[in-house]
Amino acid sequence: MNKIIQVSELTKSYGNVHAVKGINFYVEQGTLFAFLGENGAGKSTTIDIISTLLKPNSGNVLIDGFTLGKEDNQIRSSIGIVFQDSLLDPLLTVKENLEIRGSFYQLKRAALQIAIKQAAEIADINEFINRPYGKLSGGQRRRVDIARALIHTPKILFLDEPTTGLDPQTRKNVWDTIKKLQKETGMTVFLTTHYMEEAAQADYITIMGHGEIVAKGTPLELKERFATDLLKIKPIDEAELSETLNRLHVPFTITNHVFQIQLQRTIDSIEIIENCKSNIANLEVINGTMDDVFIHVTGKGVES
Amino acid sequence: MLPIAKRNLLIFFRDKSAVFFSLLAVFIIIGLYALFLGDNLVRSVGNIDGGKTLIISWVMAGILAVTSVTTTMGAFGIMVEDRSKMLFKDFSASPMKRSGLAGGYIVSSVIIGIIMSLVTFILAEIYIVSVGGQILSITNMLKIFALLILSVLASSSMVFFIVSFFKSQNAFSTASTIVGTLIGFLTGIYLPIGLLPEAVQFFIKIFPISHAGALIRQVLLQQPMETSFANAPAEVVETFMLDMGVVYQFGDYTIGVGTSVSILIVTTILFYGLSVLNISRKSA
Fold first, then answer.
1. What residues form DSSP beta bridges with A27?
2. DSSP 8-state class, residue B129
3. Span A241-264, pLDDT tens digits
4. Could you tell me the CATH number of the domain that includes residue A276?
5. Which of A172, B40, B147, B174 is deepest in the core (most CB within 10 A)?
6. Which residues from A are below 8 Å from B96, CB to CB?
7. Which residue from A87, A100, A104 is facing B95, i.e. has the nearest CB?
């Protein structure tokens, strides 16, 4: 696989605040890459640097083969960004906005019109393309933002918390648009999000904390490594279950008469259940989630 | 550069309140004259032929000078808003030259200034004619047109310099209110310069836009003065011109057309230069 973004030893400080402390990572072409981290972890700083908005103190960044700091304009032509806040003009219509922002990319008039058409198609905004941007709903605006980022058919699309502040239904729509776009165009998508169920659908995840990279891997790898499954059993006879579990050397805790058992692997639950089948009033197996991974990794600070 | 300029023009003229407020100072001045200052002034020139036309032409000339400042200021409001809303991020992440961005704002402010000044000029002409004045000759209209462009360029450069210091919408609104209020005094159009103390007169004379005002007055008042002072002695005409700021004098030296034009051109170059320095100082 071709590495479309390569970041090595990247640092950025604001006075005494070390926002990014020499991080290394890469993004493979055509993947959906999720970049996670708590607020203030250095995510936005990193994205601002990669997207040529901020100068790093040191480090090397290669984007689509272009060197950051030397070939910034080529980089700008090969990336599209959906910013956290809407940065289009509320008084102008969606189409006017797209035409104006599109004309930043030295496209010929005819080519620009075709590009706008295509971007509008992918982001599904034709329904309100002639309405003022400021009059649209949050979800509609987000889709226009995505269309704006796509006008010049970039190779990499950056999305900084694209679904934050949207209602669940709209969030799903926007997310579907992103997934569809990534699938159909094979574009590399680099996104940050606070919603772990979204991150779980990425091909690869990198988690940042306190200016450093604290974990990286596929969602599955991360879950296996940082999240544990939980088996909950409500027994008929508590004393009997305690005895059984002690015999099996399985550690447990009891909350509200419910036994909580941490599992390394989901499959381990079968053996336990087999051994106390007759004593079960109710049971539940909960899979580890990305939320667990995130809390585990960022909560305990630097690991990995 | 051109996409940005085009965008700014679209935004400015679509925001009706921005257009209105950029002309607010003009409305205030007209209001002041209509309500109290006008009659006093007409009376002060005495019972002469076409006194009212003379005074109204004088007021209109002042308004034209002020318009160039307030409308370019309104136009630069877009830049301050873009900066405070971080819209610059979107522009900076596009393959566009940084100088093109600044150039775009300058070009749009100049175009907006010229359009609004021309509109004001047409309205002023209609008003002058409606109170019995004569329509300007083609030559004089062309002169006014050239002076408006010059005045807009000088104003735009000074306003750009002021605006290059502001990052927040609030600071800009406050500044534009202050400028809108002061500009009438600074260019000597609320009150004739002759009525003011020496020190104030001095400030008016060194303020570049006052020279745009004087130049515009010279053209707009040419014909009304010929009518009003047809039989008047030369000293009377001279006193009138000095009192009303049609020409300025430093001591015994009378500032000519060439000097006033040069002042405006130098101002334009100087302040655009300073603004560019100020902006690049910030980004470094």
1. A5
2. H
3. 888 888 888 888 888 888 888 887
4. 3.30.70.260
5. B147
6. 104
7. A104
